[in-house]
Amino acid sequence: MKIICNGKEMAVREGISLEDLIMDLQLNPAMVVAECDNRIVLREEYAQKILSEGAVLELIRFVGGG
Amino acid sequence: MIQVNEHPYPYHVGMTIADLVEQLKPAADLFIVNGFPVSRECTLGEGDSCWLIRRGEKPTAEEMERLLYARHTPGVHERIRRASVGIMGLGGLGSMVALALARIGVGRLLLADFDVVEPSNLNRQNYFVDQVGLKKTEALKSNLGRVNPYLTVDVIDTVLTEQSIPTYFAEVDVLVECFDSAEMKAVAMRCALTSLKGKAFVGASGLAGYGENNSILTSKIRERVYLVGDRETAARPGEGLMAPRVGIAAHHQANQVLRLLLDVA
């Protein structure tokens, strides 16, 4: 199925969770802020959040240093 | 008229610094006219700007305020003076953001960190060798007091969490995220977008190493929510955190705070 991730169309497997998608993108879920269909997803919901066809996802990834 | 210590004062031809000293500040031992040190015998001209200083003496609160009003213009400075800014993390980013905001006279700073000053911090953070081992909150408060002793600086000496951030910083006008850890940066941004929604917020991500100056950007994430940095360069072996580039990011953050306080962002 297809979703929109950071403005770009992306093909992902049916029923994938937000957590698994973030891992597939080689990112650490704890270092990512995610918004799905205009709602910020809480960190503890990443594993349960199943993405649906056409979902619009915004991921902000953070790197360390300050 | 001339200006003496930022106050208007009547001018007459032939007037010297010695005349002013005698009438206004007999203890003064350093004299500045139009930005340059002069002797007691210096003759003044109409419109000159003079400072009579006693070495080692602190300017009064009123003198500090007048200086800042004069430099920032009254309308701008009034807003800065009334502002309250929270800074989370007092490392290379936070200690420099705090310094910049203290210099322009932000009225209240709320500073949070749990850490102590270590020797390895000195390559980029606003601390000094003789402060190694002190709490960063206390060391920074003391350093800011040397810049402007008349600001209110409150400190929070604790490990912040997603639950505690909205409580501690509910009242500030702008919240600045200066954490070292990527996880805490994400936590702070999530707070800004949920529990603190509507609060002006400036985060940072990607400022290690010595990459191009202009790769550090200030991006708008949402209304009144900004993120500074190149978004990629993590601190890691061979690409450490260094004063110049961390400083660029810190001052992006500080200027964005100012823009938010002045409602131009």
How does this structure look, described?
The complex is a heterodimer of chains A (66) and B (265). With 66 residues, chain A is mainly beta. Chain A has one helix at 18-24, and strands spanning 2-5, 8-11, 32-36, 39-41, 56-61. In chain A, strands 2-1-5-3-4 form a 5-stranded mixed beta sheet, with no helix packed on it. In chain A, a hairpin with a 2-residue loop joins strand 3 and strand 4 (39-41). The longest helix of chain A is centred in the first third of the chain and has 7 residues, at 18-24. The mean pLDDT of chain A is 97. The model of chain B has no long low-confidence stretch (mean pLDDT 96). Chain B contains 8 helices and 12 strands. In chain B, helix 2 crosses helix 3. The radius of gyration of chain B is 22 Å and the shape is elongated. In chain B, strand 1 and strand 2 (7-9) form a beta hairpin. A 7-stranded mixed beta sheet of chain B has the order 8-7-6-9-10-12-11, sandwiched between helices. The longest helix of chain B has 19 residues, at 243-261. Classes of the chains: A mainly beta (66), B alpha/beta (265).
